[in-house]
């Protein structure tokens, strides 16, 4: 069920990234109305959604570079979120130095890290039986 919900979220993020970006801005920024998105920000959100769908739809999968990077980003977000918060704001917003983070941006970033780690974990487990195991 969780896998299906996350795949649906990924598809929605691919199709319409702006509502996801708007929600993140409302959660993390005091002055979200002043945020000036860079042109590639929506494509970054779409990429995140595509990674979710790709990893989760594959069911039980091997460790890929994408999976390793998502797990590493998730772990960093959980344990030391500030560097990624700073980097992502510089990457996504033209006026990053004018934006004011809300007090709960770190806990929200940690939750995002948990989400990334959940996607990785779900991508490593599947309900389908492996045909190689059945043959032995």
From TrEMBL:
<protein>
    <submittedName>
        <fullName>Uncharacterized protein</fullName>
    </submittedName>
</protein>
